[in-house]
Amino acid sequence: MKIIINWLINTVAVTIAAFLIPGVKLTGLGAALLAAVVLGLVNAVIKPIFIILTLPINILTLGLFTLVINALMVLLVGKLVPGFEVSGFGWAMLFSIILTIVSAILNAMTKE
Q1: Domain extents in the chain
Q2: DSSP-based three-state secondary structure for 26
């Protein structure tokens, strides 16, 4: 049950972030649901590999390079999910920042 709630929270966060950012297009609820799932899978599988490979750069930038990695993950999801389009790297970075903020707020509101 917790997984479904987290999935729905992430779907709402993706929808809100896409609504706020003009460079991100989302065609409907199905695309938002799929984007939330694929983004979760990409963050669970591919992102840790990128973090390890870029560890020296990440240490030198005091972790700020993680924002770049997050933007790359959003761009990848934009290529994989039909109905979810990201116009460029800057929009992907802004989307990842807004998504993190909205997701944190929604998770805090649903905590018991």
Answers
A1: 2-110
A2: strand
